[in-house]
Design goal:
Elements (H helix, E strand, L loop, with lengths): L1 H59 L17 H26 L10 H29 L5 H25 L19 H27 L1
Length: about 220
């Protein structure tokens, strides 16, 4: 009887161990299935982000994002794969933020503010207007046809033309690559008076400097 009782007890323990092992295997199987379903969802999200980033790059002409897969820890481990996929999602989110920022910037001098960009454009076109005015005056002087009236006329008309060119540049290259649908399609020109002042100021300053240099050389 004693041997039979011991055999029965061992049989019960073995049955319990087998049940525990089966339960553990079921838990592992469920965990793997959940991990695979989670990875499938992450993969779908990554595909959606790739399509969104590719479309955004085509729309804005910006650089294509680099979403090259990075090898994670070895082994057929769903948890490790999920961690690697989450890391890829984070990189994709960062790439989307950079692409959105890039799309919101203009093509011309994207790192500058609106005011700084306007000052640079008006200043450059004003300087070009002075060079044209000076060239016209030099040609007329070489032909003995130069007059103060012509110089004054060019000094007044060319900055206005330069101002118009500046507006065209700012309204085209100064607009964001991807306009905001909630805003007007035309950019707001916040500094029209300042643009005129810069255009004429550059012309007047350059002529005054030229006159001062000539006076200093001939004195």
């Amino acid at each position: 009887m004693t041997d039979w009782a011991g055999y029965t007890a061992l049989s019960r323990e073995l049955s319990a161990e087998l049940r525990d092992d089966a339960a553990w295997r079921d838990e592992v199987r469920d965990a793997h299935e959940q991990g695979r379903r989670g990875l499938a969802g992450i993969a779908g999200r990554l595909d959606e982000q790739r399509r969104r980033l590719a479309g955004l790059a085509r729309e804005t002409g910006g650089p294509a994002p680099d979403l090259t897969a990075v090898a994670g820890p070895g082994g057929d481990d769903a948890a490790a794969a999920a961690v690697a996929a989450s890391s890829a999602l984070d990189r994709a989110d960062e790439a989307i933020e950079r692409a959105d920022h890039w799309a919101g910037r203009p093509r011309l001098l994207p790192g500058m503010s609106v005011l700084g960009r306007a000052l640079v454009v008006h200043g450059v076109t004003g300087a070009v207007a002075f060079l044209v005015s000076f060239g016209m005056f030099a040609v007329q002087a070489s032909q003995s046809r130069a007059s103060v009236g012509d110089a004054v006329l060019s000094a007044l008309a060319l900055p206005l033309l330069a101002y118009g060119v500046s507006l065209v540049v700012l309204f085209t290259a100064g607009r964001p690559r991807r306009p905001d649908p909630d805003e007007s399609p035309l950019p707001t020109l916040s500094t029209p008076v300042l643009g005129l002042v810069v255009s004429y100021g550059v012309m007047v300053t350059c002529w005054l400097l030229f006159i001062a240099v000539v006076a200093a050389l001939t004195s």
